[in-house]
Design brief:
8 helices, mainly alpha, 123 residues
């Protein structure tokens, strides 16, 4: 679903992922698996960061995107000019600062951890 070769927009990807996550969390809501939920959530966020960074395609696109997210110019260039692949780029300080939890909230990502905690508080 989060393949970087699908050629869909980020909004479409988030819509599909959210639908899957809601159903999945409802199915497993009675189980005690907080640590697994946290690992899955962080892995998914990294996949989405990787997807978004790859959409930039070129170095200058990565710099422009990270600058628009509030990352310093120097860190944006360091991230863009590193020789790392897309997956490793998705876990660099520049991408973690630019695509932090507020960014995920802004794009409408269904956060598994907060919703899992909310479900377990209410029961």
């Amino acid at each position: 679903m989060t393949s970087r070769r699908r050629g869909i927009s980020l909004d479409q990807l988030i819509k599909e992922v959210n639908s899957l996550l809601r159903g999945w969390l409802q199915y497993f809501k009675r189980s005690e698996m907080k640590s697994k939920i946290e690992r899955i959530n962080s892995w998914l966020k990294r996949r989405i960061r990787c997807f978004r960074i790859k959409q930039c395609k070129r170095k200058i696109g990565i710099v422009r995107f990270l600058r628009s997210q509030g990352v310093s110019e120097k860190l944006s260039w360091l991230t863009a000019l590193s020789g790392k692949g897309w997956w490793r780029l998705s876990n660099t300080p520049g991408t973690n600062i630019g695509m932090n939890n507020e960014w995920f909230t802004k794009i409408g990502y269904y956060d598994l951890v907060s919703n899992y905690n909310h479900l377990h508080k209410s029961t």
